[in-house]
Amino acid sequence: MAVDKEKLGKVSIIISRGTVEGIYPGLIMANGARMEGIEANIFFTFFGLHAIHKKKMKKIRVDTVGNPALGIPPIIGIIPGMSAMVTRMMLKEMDKLDIPPVDEFLEMIAAAGANIYACKAAMDMFHFTKEDLIDEVADVLTVGQFYEIAAGGAIIFT
């Protein structure tokens, strides 16, 4: 039996963690939304801002401490170089799947029509300026402004 499903028209994705596993799910979802013709807004807040910060975006790592899904005991995760090693391994696997680095991925997503925003409160808290951010960032918004843009769509936290 056929089921009528209402197509989702808009998603707004909030990225608040500045780690590989905190940033990529939101980017993948935003890219997938645009490929399906769905409006996509990405709102970067707290440490998620590192993904759109020119000087920090190339230093994003996997969190090896407090990440039980990795299967690494916390004591092993704190060994110097462990985060860098696990990050290299994960990025290598992602490269095999043609998942681009964060900077290239953001360029692709923006070129596909997604809107990229930074959180004003987090920007102020970290003393970041709009000039610190990549050119693809459309605006720095308050939470209220983000809710106005997100109205009528699904809000996804990654």
Walk me through what this model shows.
This protein has 158 residues and is α/β, with parallel strands linked by helices. It has a domain at 11-62 and 102-157: Hypothetical Protein Ychn, Chain: A (3-Layer(aba) Sandwich). It has 6 helices and 5 strands; from the N terminus they run βαβαααβαβαβ. The protein has helices at 20-35, 74-77, 82-96, 102-111, 120-126, 143-150, and strands at 10-15, 39-44, 115-119, 137-141, 154-157. Strands 4-3-2-1-5 form a 5-stranded parallel sheet. Helix 1 (20-35) links the parallel strand 1 and strand 2. Helix 1 packs parallel to helix 4. The protein is globular. It starts with 9 loop residues before the first strand and ends with a strand. The mean pLDDT is 93.
What's the short version?
By secondary structure, the chain is α/β, with parallel strands linked by helices. Helix content is 38%, strand content 16%.
Topology:
Layout: E1 10-15, H1 20-35, E2 39-44, H2 74-77, H3 82-96, H4 102-111, E3 115-119, H5 120-126, E4 137-141, H6 143-150, E5 154-157
Parallel strand pairs: 1-2, 1-5, 2-3, 3-4
